[in-house]
Design goal:
mainly alpha, Serine Threonine Protein Phosphatase 5, Tetratricopeptide repeat, 18 helices, 74% helix, 0% strand
Length: 305
């Protein structure tokens, strides 16, 4: 087996480990492509799908999914004018994996079988209240049990239902978590403790989460622990993602206003409202600005006196 073939086989096995296919054996697809040669296998699928026959196009999409090539998967399925259930499911999965969460949520809307993807996508967008409602009517997509329950915990704790969040976190743990999810679990456990008013335990969990290699969860934990605005600037240089940037800006706004730095605090909250309009944080940011405008005017009048 060539190095190139081994690479694509490994990619296929990774895709399979992250979630099962919709009626396709991705490990077998990747193994066959590795033996045949990726380019030759791809060309065969492209030729078969060139006529637009639905089964062949779906097979092309599954071929790309087996190699974790999500943009190509999306492009393949979007060739279909009237995709069937399997094609729709593959499209939504690919959109979710490619972090196009707004598109994934929109594509899954109104489709019960895809409700789990929609709920998880809304969670990643920070639309926690809407996500929590979606989880009540959804089931975990095949192969996504841990992600599903962890996302449910996040949606519920940040929409004010700590008890339901704890149940979801317990469900995630009961199913077995990969090491890569440890920081996420600890961050969410800390958020639940914080919602319960147990600041000491919350801080301990955030500290545990923050010690893991940089990812969304360890960095969000660091942001939660930070008490100085200037420290947040340094964190912003170490990691970038929509959820982290959203948390960071909300934290900056809160810390800045607590120190009566109205310009910085309002600017941080304005960024949240502009960059993350789908999130609950956008409404919270606008409310925070409105609540402190009177303090700003009072400070200005005091300065003039």
């Amino acid at each position: 087996m060539t190095a190139r073939a081994a690479f694509f086989l490994a990619a296929g096995l990774l895709a399979l480990s992250q979630g099962a296919a919709h009626g396709a054996d991705r490990a077998a697809i990747a193994a066959q492509a590795a033996n045949q040669g990726f380019a030759a296998a791809e060309e065969a699928h492209l030729q078969a799908a060139s006529g637009g026959e639905a089964a062949a196009v779906l097979s092309l999409g599954e071929f790309y999914a087996a190699h974790a090539l999500w943009p190509e998967t999306i492009a393949a399925i979007r060739r279909l004018r009237s995709p069937g259930e399997n094609a729709e499911a593959l499209l939504v999965e690919a959109l979710y994996r490619f972090e196009r969460y707004r598109d994934a949520a929109a594509a899954a809307e109104g489709k019960f079988a895809l409700g789990g993807y929609r709920a998880m996508a809304l969670t990643r967008l920070g639309a926690y209240a809407e996500a929590a409602a979606a989880f009540a009517k959804a089931e975990a997509p095949l192969g996504f049990d841990a992600d599903y329950h962890l996302a449910s915990a996040e949606a519920h704790v940040f929409s004010g239902d700590g008890a339901r969040a704890l149940k979801s976190l317990d469900s995630a743990a009961a199913g077995g978590l990969p090491n890569s999810a440890t920081a996420r679990f600890q961050f969410l456990r800390g958020a639940i403790y914080l919602a319960q008013g147990d600041g000491a335990r919350a801080r301990a969990q955030f500290q545990r989460a923050s010690k893991h290699p940089a990812d969304d969860w360890s960095m969000r934990a660091e942001a939660a622990l930070t008490e100085k605005v200037d420290t947040l600037e340094r964190l912003s240089l170490r990691w970038r993602s929509a959820p982290f940037d959203r948390d960071l800006a909300m934290r900056e706004g809160a810390l800045a206003l607590a120190g009566a730095d109205f310009a910085r605090g309002f600017a941080a909250y304005a960024r949240v409202a502009a960059r993350f309009p789908d999130s609950d944080a956008a409404l919270a940011a606008q409310a925070a600005i409105g609540a402190r405008l009177g303090d700003l005017f009072s400070a200005d009048l005091t300065a003039e006196d």
